[in-house]
Amino acid sequence: MKTNDIVYGVHAVTEALLANTGNKLYLQEDLRGKNVEKVK
């Protein structure tokens, strides 16, 4: 992944985290859901 790529969506972000790529993560404050809890 390039340093300026933006990944969005719960599934895409989960995959990026598992691959240990990226350096910033922004979450919506009141975001809820089963898959969102995996990211938090």
TrEMBL record:
SUPFAM superfamilies: L30e-like. Residues 6-39 form the RNA 2-O ribose methyltransferase substrate binding domain. Keywords: Methyltransferase, Transferase. This is 23S rRNA (Guanosine(2251)-2'-O)-methyltransferase RlmB. It comes from the Bacteria. The lineage of its organism: Bacteria, Bacillati, Bacillota, Bacilli, Lactobacillales. GO terms for biological process: methylation. InterPro entries: Ribosomal_eL30-like_sf, SpoU_subst-bd. One of its GO terms (molecular function) is methyltransferase activity. It holds the Pfam family SpoU_sub_bind.
